[in-house]
Write a sequence for this structure.
């Protein structure tokens, strides 16, 4: 798991033949996905297509029933210790931010480094301030999440994840719950993160973001990966009919 | 600009909207129906308050030592005065009262220290209060060591016993309740069904039954050479009974915390206990303060039921004193006194919980 052990061409996330059911409902069908270190993947698709479920399987917030998921060389099984090991190296940003409302912004960023990585308070706070600086919200460190706007909260959530020094970042529709004027400030932070070489999997409908930073765009429908391509051919020359329909719907207006 | 303008005629000052008169007009005499209710209300209040004050204070007998000193028409507080020591300490030997006093002082000092936010070292004081103090209190009250004469638990009583039962019940019921609530939400079938059965069993039986079982039935099942103190049995019964209620209050609070909180904590690599202890419980407990205090208050009052298994708590000892032939006929004074003491404690808990709620409320929706 140590960074030195992983060469640039190593797979950070591998999914092979992953299937998942909610009761009778088949949410994920034979998912195969290989994400290299430093790669930036954008996942799109209609609602209910299983894209959130797929990335939530990567840090085992959802359990898959069939197939294999390997994250940073660690295969995900039922073993709780392993799951926690994987989660420590995978950051996640949620649609509804999920900041801890009883803790200040600074404490939100310190709690995991202190209790999971056993850092001292001083070290954790210094590091938290550094990341809050990077997402341009350091001046709000003493405030509580409820006092911030949606865009500010989401930037804090990104900083909170970064404080754990993740190898991979998962974004689950990070801008869908935001007012339009706040989307840009969050996307800017994400673009910077991508430029620094962070491995990213991002579920989003922000096609501008996909065009700018993605190495690959994945289109999902009904639990399957329908199409997977570099942004330019993906947007200009989509192969499948369903992709064409989807793109015409979200880009058409 | 300023020239060619005429002054506006002076107008009368607006009706005052502040001050007591305005408040009266706005709230008590705002229209005929409101005025009628106000007058009826005042009359009822007059009918209730005047005789009560007359009886309890103005016409009351305050000085003296025997019932012959109660010559005036009102309450005979001489009775309560004469029996006061007993009401507070039960049948605790008079020569050993200093031991109980030390425990009382320690008890209230620790509570005050923990309750007042400005005082420092909360964590150490809490550890002391929960670990060291109970041992000190037991050694002092029970004796039998360090040259202190032994005072068997059947001589403990009065307010001392009430506070002992209530505080042990509260301190025991909260952690057991938390564990049961988490157990009931667990995905492990054995843990879950154990919690459900435990909670539903204790919630399904009346506390009186529990106390009867503890004092009458339990010794039948235990080997005859093993005798568990009656007070201990009552304490265990009360604690388990209240922990079932506490568990349901806490479960309600846990359900109000959105799943995303637990997921966010999990995504940061926290273990189950860290997620619960650092993220979910602190938020849930804050929301549960009214429910928890409600349970505490009802527990405090329920301790009076130990009377039926022969323990003399505050109410029990008051009742015993009422049957004293020298003081027959003063039951009203006795009960009013007991009610007043209970009310002071319950009302303080209620006020403190409201204060705590306001203090902990960061006022921010998630």
């Amino acid at each position: 798991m140590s960074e030195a052990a992983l060469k640039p061409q190593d797979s950070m996330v591998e999914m092979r033949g992953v299937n998942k059911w909610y009761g009778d409902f088949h949410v994920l069908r034979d998912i195969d996905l290989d994400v290299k270190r430093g790669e930036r993947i954008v996942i799109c698709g209609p609602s209910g297509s299983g894209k959130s479920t797929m990335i939530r399987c990567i840090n085992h917030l959802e359990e898959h029933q069939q197939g294999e998921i390997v994250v940073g060389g660690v295969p995900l099984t039922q073993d709780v210790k392993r799951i926690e090991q994987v989660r420590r190296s995978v950051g996640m940003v949620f649609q509804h931010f999920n900041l801890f409302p009883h803790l200040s912004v600074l404490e939100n960023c310190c709690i995991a480094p202190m209790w999971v990585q056993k850092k001292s308070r001083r070290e954790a706070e210094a590091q938290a301030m550094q990341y809050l600086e990077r997402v341009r919200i350091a001046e709000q460190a003493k405030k509580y999440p409820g006092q911030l706007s949606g865009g500010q909260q989401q930037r804090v959530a990104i900083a909170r994840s970064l404080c754990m020094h993740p190898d991979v970042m998962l974004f689950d529709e990070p801008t869908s719950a935001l007012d339009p004027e706040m989307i840009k400030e969050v996307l800017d932070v994400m673009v910077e993160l991508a430029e620094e070489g962070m491995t990213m999997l991002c579920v989003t409908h922000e096609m501008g973001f996909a065009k700018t930073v993605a190495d690959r765009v994945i289109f999902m429908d009904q639990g399957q990966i329908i199409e997977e391509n570099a942004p330019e051919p993906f947007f200009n020359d989509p192969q499948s009919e369903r992709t064409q329909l989807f793109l015409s719907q979200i880009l058409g207006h | 600009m300023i020239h060619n303008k005429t002054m506006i005629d002076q107008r009368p000052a607006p009706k005052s909207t502040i001050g007591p008169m305005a408040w009266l007009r706005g709230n008590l005499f705002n229209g005929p129906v409101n005025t009628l209710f106000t007058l009826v209300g005042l009359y009822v209040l007059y009918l209730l308050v005047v005789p009560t004050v007359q009886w309890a204070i103005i016409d009351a007998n305050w000085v003296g030592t025997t019932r012959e000193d109660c010559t005036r028409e009102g309450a005979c507080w001489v009775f309560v005065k004469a029996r006061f020591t007993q009401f507070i300490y039960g049948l605790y030997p008079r020569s050993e009262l200093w031991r109980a006093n030390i425990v009382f002082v320690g008890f209230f000092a620790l509570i005050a220290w923990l309750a007042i936010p400005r005082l420092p070292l909360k964590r150490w004081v809490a550890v002391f209060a929960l670990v060291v103090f109970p041992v000190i209190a037991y050694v002092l009250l029970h004796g039998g060591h360090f040259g202190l004469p032994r005072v068997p638990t059947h001589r403990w009583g009065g307010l001392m016993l009430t506070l002992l039962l209530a505080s042990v019940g509260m301190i025991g019921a909260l952690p057991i309740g938390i564990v049961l609530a988490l157990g009931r939400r667990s995905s492990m079938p054995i843990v879950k069904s154990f919690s459900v059965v435990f909670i539903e069993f204790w919630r399904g039986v009346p506390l009186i039954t529990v106390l009867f079982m503890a004092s009458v039935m339990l010794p039948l099942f235990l080997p005859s050479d093993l005798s568990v103190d009656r007070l201990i049995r009552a304490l265990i019964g009360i604690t388990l009974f209240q922990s079932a209620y506490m568990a349901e209050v806490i479960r309600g609070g846990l359900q109000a915390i959105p799943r995303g909180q637990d997921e966010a904590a999990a995504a940061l690599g926290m273990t189950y206990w860290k997620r619960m202890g650092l993220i979910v419980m602190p938020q849930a407990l804050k929301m549960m303060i009214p429910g928890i205090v409600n349970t505490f208050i009802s527990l405090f009052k329920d301790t009076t039921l130990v009377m039926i298994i022969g323990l003399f708590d505050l109410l029990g000892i008051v009742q015993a004193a009422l049957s004293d032939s020298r003081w027959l006929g003063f039951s009203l004074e006795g009960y009013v006194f007991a009610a007043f003491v209970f009310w002071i404690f319950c009302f303080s808990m209620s006020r403190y919980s409201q204060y705590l709620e306001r203090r902990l409320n960061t006022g921010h929706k998630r």
DSSP finds nine helices and ten strands in chain A. Chain A touches chain B through 29 residues (CB under 8 Å). The longest helix of chain A spans residues 180-195. Chain A has a mean pLDDT of 90.
